[in-house]
Amino acid sequence: MNHKITIDELGGRGDGIVSIDGKIVYVPYTVTGDVVDVKLNGSKGRLRDIHQKSPHRVDAVCEHFTKCGGCMLQHVETEYYKNWKSGLIKTALINQGIDNVEILPLKMSPAASRRRTSFQAIGRGAGNIVLGYAEKGSHNLIDVNMCSILVPEIANFIDPLRKFLQKLLKKQQKMTVQITKGDNGLDVVFKTKGEVDLDLRMDLAEFAQTNDLARVSWFDTGLKKPHYEMLAERKKPYVTFEGNKVFFPEGAFLQATKQGQKALIDAMLKGISGAGHVVDLFSGCGTFSIAAAKQANVHAVENNEEMLVALKTSANMMTGIRKVTTELRDLFLRPLLPHELNKYDVAIIDPPRAGAKHQMTEIINSDIKKLVMISCNPVSFSRDVQNLNDAGFKMGAVTPIDQFIYSPHLEILSVFERA
């Protein structure tokens, strides 16, 4: 049965929210003020028809919008979207009883700026394949021939990739293709069960040549200990942090957009101003370490050996930076302890989505005076803020950074000083 309703507000996950008979219902692809017909299924509403468009509604930019599950919010007008996204932090902080925080204007990456992605592909037999992204809340693959958030180099690669995979994939064979745009070309990893035979090696090398790819690797997911096997490296892929080149390994984590990376680095540099010794926790291949090393000695700690080696090797080739040391360590199991942290003026911490509760506890118990904290999860960020507040740290303004446009994901940076 269809219900005619008016959407009350945009929820934290990007769905429109309305109360029906005292129950909260979530309706994807709607926005505050839309008058719509929805079909109810428990607390989920399915959009059937729009009677009256909200003033906050605009036309989506991608033909796959609402089918492909990558974007949730292409239908929301930019100013309203920006306020909603900044509001995610405000709400998370207020829920922890923190309401006197300055939130700076959202720094939003433009369309066509996302420089890494993973496509899923599956063979359908007779040379047919589906290549694209999963539908929202399902494993069903949606075939895509465009993507308005990816950098043009990756978006333009969809077509040649499809033609190549049509010859390669057997019926029901699944594959993930991970693509990262370095500053000098695309780094492409094929992930599937099975090893790569001599013929396929030749085909992949030729494919790399034809499409001017920087590097092509294979990742056999069927192995007990899967690893990247490089098949062709025509140019060693690199990215630039504050004018310094870092050559990154296959599958390395990079900030999703160049603009987002720059906004994070700028805010971080402001935060560490005047420091002589900095520790960078969860350093990856050195987004913050390399930038910070222009003014301080930096100790980078990370649990991924390839990324640390990339950071160290690149740092050794650089001029005009201070000393960079590295340490391979699992900060979830073995966080840096107070006596180790006390050598540093400032800690930079950029933990994964789950946060880093144990490491935060050790920072609080140390003598460190200043902390630059980057988070991609407003909820775990707010919990950490609460703990830092209780320990006598004063929180500076929050910089919200939107690298995952049209989605509810958000990066946050704030500087904390011990009162």
Number of helices: 10
Known CATH architecture of the largest domain: 3-Layer(aba) Sandwich
Report the uncertain regions: none
Question: Percentage of helical residues?
Answer: 25-40%
Distance between the termini: 58 Å
Task: Count the beta strands.
Answer: 23
Look at the helices and sheets and give the structural class: alpha/beta
Give the biggest beta sheet: 8 strands, mixed
Inertia-based shape:
flat
Give the averaged pLDDT, no decimals: 95
Strand content: 25-35%
CATH superfamily of the largest domain: Vaccinia Virus protein VP39
Compute the number of structural domains: 3
Please list the strands of the largest sheet in the order they lie side by side: 7-22-23-21-20-17-18-19
**Could you please say which CATH topology of the largest domain applies here?**
Rossmann fold
- Name of the level-1 CATH class of the largest domain: Alpha Beta
Rg over C-alpha atoms, rounded to the nearest angstrom: 23 Å
Write up what this structure looks like.
The termini are far apart. The protein folds into three domains: 82 residues, Beta Barrel (OB fold (Dihydrolipoamide Acetyltransferase, E2P)), CATH 2.40.50.140; 182 residues, 3-Layer(aba) Sandwich (Rossmann fold), CATH 3.40.50; 119 residues, OB fold (Dihydrolipoamide Acetyltransferase, E2P) (Beta Barrel). It is α/β, with parallel strands linked by helices. The strands form five sheets. An eight-stranded mixed beta sheet has the order 7-22-23-21-20-17-18-19, with helices on both faces. Helix 1 crosses helix 10. The mean pLDDT is 95. The chain has ten helices and 23 strands. Helix content is 25%, strand content 32%.
